[in-house]
Design goal:
The complex is a heterodimer of chains A (about 850) and B (about 80). By secondary structure, chain A is α/β, with parallel strands linked by helices. In chain A, helix 22 packs across helix 34. Chain A is elongated, with a radius of gyration of 34 Å. By secondary structure, chain B is an alpha+beta fold. Chain B has one domain: Roll (SH3 type barrels). Chain B has a five-stranded antiparallel beta sheet with strand order 4-3-2-1-5. The longest helix of chain B has 9 residues. In chain B, about 55% of the residues are buried. Classes of the chains: A alpha/beta (about 850), B alpha+beta (about 80). At the A-B interface, helix 3, helix 11, helix 12, helix 16 and strand 10 of A face helix 1 and strand 4 of B.
């Protein structure tokens, strides 16, 4: 018979719980969020003989109180989801501390399998654990494993199967000495029929601990809840008077002592030498002088390897994707001479959006692998340790370091993994503040606009201008974080900063590669699908309502004039007049265009010949025109005239596109916004490209490119040259305002979605979009209008603003309204 | 005397936890109990937080939180 069993996997942070999870379930796992909270629920399936097991990975917690979200999630699962047993993973070298969680699971009377993990570490230190004795003391089976090397899988799985079948309730009990009387009294008072779903002794203990969750449970279920709680308060006060201690600490102390006794009886451990090496490494890594230097070096290396090297690696991928795109576009309806079919434009737009996102994959794989190395080696907590004080002055947290680095604290990153990485920040207020400022970092997609603007408007001072925009963002983000924590985030929970500094160890290839692939996959799954859907919407906003029939007819007429000119130029006696008569000319224009595109970038002669042969095959009649034979004067004349016609066609298409963008919904919105944005120096065209950038910031440059057309048929000049000549009346000051706006620009669509996922709140997502929009327009207007009034040049305005931002950062960093920066929660959260 | 007042290299024994609520629980979770020996290893480059050795492992704690732990020093 097939049996199915629900098994919980519990353990303290850093105990190797996820490696045990992976060891048992292999690749078959499923990640979902617990409803309503930000904590992820990972469940995996595996089978032992005929028993099918669903293993649910609970969040890592030190205990099962209701102080933190993770603890509440773990506890609620154990109580309400009725797992047939709990697998408690313990870091064998840290047995003593780990036992307090084991005790609390056993007190819930859930059959528990204790897995002593990281046995290789324990053995390396000559630690001998008497598992039989430990099992006897706990009244629960104990098995050993080294999940990192997949050792112990079979024994763990078999024991799970055996325990799932037998369902023996644990008999383990801690003697709380003088509190036993109070516990018995309360247990007696709790009606059995009301609290049938959990051990009443456990509830009595938690009530004495003044546990908010337990009190809530009583209020929910018992009609005379207030009397019960009154009685608990009385007993607690009595105990306090007699023993000078609150029950909560007394009971914790009982557990701690018991853990000490058990470890003394079951473990033989020589003097702990595990940390001797770590201590020596920390002496350098956390040193006052070397610490920050090493930190900067590590960050530099991280960017260099992922962005620079990663970018080079994207080359082949981009070519692959472009080739694939070309293949797919050939399946779309054929292009028109001056107007493409709607379905074709949509298809190409959609593919371009996808290609832009997918090219990030190599960069992400490298970035995530490097981050996994930092995490697995134990350096990550050291980074938080070094920077905590600095960040705390701005309402952030030592662990805000990673999200900011990922998002591009200097230049080149991506806000999506940045927001994703805030998950590890235990302090809710600092976590939200970090999520809100992450979009202000310089992600990769902002860089092209910076480059174009700097090249066009600060040609003499490129390096300085790039340095300005790379570093000024941090001096804007830190003050904003501070202001946010003092205002909108004021009431959010803070958590103490007590962080384990695990011993350094050498990262394993398996962990690094596994984690890198897993996280990249999450990115692909969560983001790409949604961006795909929204890119279609943005397309529609840019496309409709479209041009009126009269306008279309006018462009058509212009094309007719151009073709007339062409015919006149080649002369009536041209041998190919007949071939190109009527619609055939349009057909030839498209054919020649397709040929040009197909042979573009082909340096190899044989490949070029192959393409030429293919095209000649397709339209044999046109073949002599593609490559005029020597002496064929008529064909040569057509070639020359064709160049002018092509340029005319390009101009008409650009102008049409331009007019259509201006007439689109987004265009109308861009025009409507001019009264506001004119103070920042933005005109309709800039507005349109900024609005389109919300889908993906990379598109700013391409939209600008579409809007700033080259009117006189000049050959495709590079965009910065075009901007220089076309943005008439634009000054470096305009460019500065635009760059600052881009730096503060609301999170792109993908990031917004990630903000929603991480905060579990659409409200915060909208807030992050709205406040950054407001901030961006305010800052760029202040800089533009202010500098215009003062008559400052672009460079002067740039460095005045820089000085101002640094000054505000210093002042706000020193401003500390609370003398004790950490307001420790005196009240327990509900 | 509190743990927050001690400099690198000091050894001490925990006397009492002043903190209540979540901080108290967190401190106990990580092994801060009356009688436990603690060694201050080093300060962060900006003097805060501090790295400690307790019960055989290392952890870091902010100075303001270390002030919530009363200790008696037994060697400087």
């Amino acid at each position: 018979m097939k049996r199915k069993a629900l098994v919980a996997l519990a353990g303290q942070p850093n105990c190797g719980k996820s490696t045990v999870f992976n060891m048992l379930t292999g690749a078959r796992q499923h990640v979902a969020n617990y409803p309503g909270v930000t904590v992820e629920k990972k469940s995996g399936f595996f089978a032992v003989d005929e028993t099918k097991i669903e293993l649910v990975d609970l969040p890592g917690t030190y205990s099962l109180s209701s102080y933190s979200l993770e603890e509440r999630v773990a506890r609620d699962f154990l109580i309400h989801d009725h797992p047939v047993l709990a697998v408690n993973v313990i870091e064998a070298p840290n047995l003593r501390r780990s036992l307090s969680l084991t005790f609390q699971i056993l007190e819930l009377e859930i059959p528990t399998l204790v897995v002593l993990n990281m046995m290789d570490m324990a053995e390396k230190r000559d630690m001998v654990i008497d598992t039989a004795a430990l099992s006897k003391k706990l009244g629960a089976p104990v098995v050993t494993s080294t999940a990192r090397k997949s050792q112990g899988r079979e024994e763990v799985a078999q024991t799970i199967k055996r325990m799932a079948a037998s369902q023996a309730v644990p008999t383990f009990r801690i003697d709380y000495g003088p509190l036993e009387y109070a516990i018995a009294q309360i247990e007696e008072r709790l009606p059995r029929e009301t609290f049938y779903f959990l051990p009443r002794r456990w509830l009595a203990i938690k009530l004495l601990e003044e546990d908010a969750g337990a009190m809530h449970m009583v209020r929910e279920n018992a009609p005379d809840a207030e009397q019960i709680l009154e009685m608990v308060r009385g007993l607690s006060a009595e105990f306090r008077k007699e023993h000078g201690e609150i029950p909560e600490s007394y009971m914790a102390f009982c557990r701690h002592s018991l853990a000490g006794e058990i470890v003394a009886a079951c473990v033989v451990s020589p003097k702990d030498s595990r940390y001797a090496l770590s201590d020596r490494i920390d002496a350098v890594v956390c040193n006052k002088f070397f610490g920050p230097l090493i930190l900067v070096g590590v960050i530099f290396l991280l960017y260099y390897l992922s962005i620079d090297v990663g970018y080079q690696l994207t080359g082949p991928l981009v070519n692959q994707l472009l080739a694939f795109k070309a293949t797919l576009s050939s399946l779309l309806p054929a292009p028109g001479v001056i107007e493409d079919p709607l379905f074709r434009s949509l298809g190409i737009w959609f593919m371009e959006s996808m290609v832009a996102l997918l090219t990030y994959i190599p960069i992400f794989l490298i970035l995530f692998a490097l981050i996994a190395i930092l995490e697995d080696s134990g350096y990550m907590p050291r980074m938080a340790f070094i920077l905590d004080k600095l960040f705390r002055n701005f309402g952030l947290h030592g662990q805000s370091t990673l999200p900011l680095i990922l998002a591009g604290v200097y230049m080149g990153g991506c806000c999506v993994p940045g927001v994703m990485a805030t998950k590890g920040i235990p302090d809710e207020r600092a976590r939200l503040a970090t999520i809100l400022i992450v979009p202000m970092m310089n992600c990769l997609a902002k860089v092209p606009l910076y480059v174009v603007l700097v090249a066009a408007f600060f040609p003499q001072d490129r390096t300085l201008a790039m340095f300005f925009i790379s570093t000024v963002t941090l001096f804007m983000a830190l003050p904003v974080a501070k202001v946010l924590t003092l205002t909108v985030l004021r009431k959010h929970d803070q958590a103490p900063f007590i962080m384990e500094m695990p011993a350094y160890h050498f990262p394993t290839l398996k962990v690094v590669v596994g984690r890198s692939i897993e996280r990249t996959w999450i990115f692909v799954k969560k983001i790409v699908s949604i961006v795909a859907a929204v890119s279609v919407i943005v397309f529609a906003l840019l496309q409709f309502p479209g041009l009126s029939d009269e306008r279309l007819a006018e462009y058509g007429a212009r094309w007719n004039t151009a073709t007339q000119e062409f015919r006149t130029k080649i002369g009536a006696d041209n041998a190919y007049q007949g071939l190109l008569a009527g619609d055939n000319l349009d057909r030839y224009v498209l054919f020649a265009d397709a040929y040009r595109q197909a042979s573009m970038g082909l340096s190899d002669q044989s490949a070029a010949d192959k393409v030429a042969a293919e095209f000649a095959d397709r339209e044999p009649a046109f073949a002599p025109l593609l490559k005029p034979a020597a002496g064929d004067k008529d064909a040569a004349a057509i070639r020359t005239a064709m160049r002018a016609l092509d340029n005319n066609r390009k101009t008409i298409r650009r102008e049409m596109k331009n007019e259509q963008l201006n007439a689109s919904f987004l265009g109308a919105l861009g025009e409507m916004l001019v009264p506001v944005t004119k103070y920042a120096g933005f005109d309709t065209k800039v507005n349109i490209s900024l609005l389109a950038a919300f889908a993906a910031k990379e598109s700013t440059v391409s939209t600008l490119g579409a809007l700033y057309t080259v009117s006189d048929g000049e050959k495709d000049a590079s965009l910065d040259k075009r901007l220089q000549t076309e943005m008439v009346g634009y000054t470096p000051l305009h460019a500065l305002a635009l760059m600052l706006f881009m730096a503060l620009y609301p999170p792109c669509l993908a990031t917004s979605i990630m903000v929603q996922i991480q905060t579990k709140s659409t409200k915060w997502m909208l807030f992050s979009i709205g406040y950054l929009m407001f901030l961006g327009i305010t800052v760029s207007s202040a800089v533009f209008t202010g500098a215009s009034l003062l008559g400052l040049s672009g460079m002067q305005a740039m460095w005045t603003f820089y000085g101002f931002a640094v000054l505000v950062t210093i002042v706000l960093g020193l401003y500390n309204p609370q003398p004790k920066p950490v307001a420790i929660l005196k009240e327990k959260p509900a | 005397m509190t743990l927050g007042e001690l400099g690198p290299g000091c050894r001490c024994r925990v006397r009492r936890l002043r903190a209540r609520g979540v901080l108290c629980r967190r401190l106990m979770d990580l092994g801060f109990y009356p009688g436990v020996g603690v060694k201050v290893l080093r300060n962060a480059p900006l003097r805060d937080p501090v790295e400690l050795e307790i019960d055989g492992y290392f952890l870091s704690i902010r100075r303001s939180e270390a002030h919530e732990v009363e200790v008696e020093s037994h060697e400087a």
